[in-house]
Amino acid sequence: MNEMKTLPLAFTYVGVFLGAGFVSGPELWQFFGAFGNWGYVGFLLAAVLFTLFGILLVRLTQVAHTDEMDRLLVPWNIPWLRAASGIVAAAFLFGVVVIMAAGSGALLEQMTGLPTWIGNALFMLAVNLIIPAHFVREAKKALISEAQYQNRTIPYTDDESFFDDEWNDTEEHFLTPSIVFLELDNANQSSGWNRDAYRLEKELLEYCKGRDLSLNQCYTFKTDRHHLIFMSVQEEQDDWEKPYAYIMYIDIGPITRYIVTLNWAFFGVLLAISSVMCLLGFRFGRDIEKEAERQQTFFQNASHELKTPLMAIQGYAEGIQAGVMDAGGAAEVILAESDRMTELVDELLDISKIDMGRQPLTLSEMDIRELLYDSIRAVEPAAAGGIAIVPDFPEEPVMVSCDDTRLRRAVTNILSNGVRYARSELRLTCRADRRQVTIRIQDDGDGIAEEDLPHIFDRFYMGKSGKSGIGLALAKEIIHLHKGTIRAYNGDSGAVFEISIPVSR
Hints:
The chain folds into 4 domains: 2-146, no CATH class; 147-251, no CATH class; 258-355, Helix Hairpins (Orthogonal Bundle), CATH 1.10.287; 364-502, Histidine kinase-like ATPase, C-terminal domain (Heat Shock Protein 90), CATH 3.30.565. It has 505 residues and is of the alpha+beta class. 57% of the residues lie in helices and 14% in strands. The two termini are 74 Å apart. Helix 5 crosses helix 6 and helix 9 (253-322) packs antiparallel against helix 10. It contains 13 helices and 11 strands. Residues 1-6 and 10-21 have low confidence and may be disordered. The strands form 3 sheets. The protein has a 5-stranded mixed sheet, covered by helices on one side.
């Protein structure tokens, strides 16, 4: 019998806890349906487990004779442990309510298109209306059941089976332990166990005095902190004794106060989250706006950089076609501009792959001096106009773990930039300690304008010189992939680029 009565409660537990607190029906199907026919088995198994867990929870509360979660979780009389478990349980329940509120708003938006805050507000409104009304109704049922029980007459009989079969057939309501009995005829006495309870019952007795209260009918009495559901009961005694009158009441004030606290906590959390989201939105909104502007500038500059060699190629090709240009000289220019455009496209592709995280490094152990010599040989044709590249390396090998191809490209880009601005000399030094290798590239030019220094590694940044490009930006990204750093500053004579990368372990 009891199993049949607790089964609906278990199913209600499953529906509320699963359906509203965690996932919706479509989400359940998306999860279990991915396994085909076995998904039905998993779904039924999950439902059975949650049902059994709900039944077990109900049984534990009945066996323990308590409706307090902290006493159920901590059966030992350890106040601090019970308090801790109560706090954890309250936080968990509050989280479930917040999740349910958020889920209701999301589901309403999905089904009707209304804003989520409307669903959240409707859920909290339902919580404020349904839960207090539910406990009022349950308190009345408990009082009526107890009144019927108290008004029964115990017969004089030697049949002990009566007490087993007839007398105990009334099931105890879960609010029955919360019923308080108060004598109605003696206003000078109270069953109160503390000052607050004593004052409350005095107020209740004063409220009942002079009122025509019907027997076995439920009434409501409210104060600032209490919400009483009470009933006036009269038990008939023997003929020579007057009837015994008393009041039974249940205080659901803690429930209503909890609802109020839940409202304040919910709206407090909502306000805090909204404030944080506004601040984050303002912060990231500016970053997104700057990033959008930077991307737009990037594409504009990239288009400009690609158009320049294309226009040169087109102009010289048309000159050859019209017979107004020397074919040999024009072909050299076309090939040079084609190489320039190919290099620019490769740089754009590389930096795009780095941005998308699709540029993995192929690391290998090598002597960094060999890489630097290769970079020098790569820029020697550009330095043939009288720019001397002076290497200053240690005599012993300097081993690093790096991607040979990409790190060489980074160093070559910086060397090419130095050759462009040097007057007569470009010095390349390399020093190492136990932690890192430092590569320094210094020219003897006019240096970098102070207003250009913070932006020297920006993509397509056009500084005081009027030239822009992506070579330095690509070099910076490659060095960062190697867990290294790069910085630019003005030395005693000319600009200095300093690279630091970890040594091999």
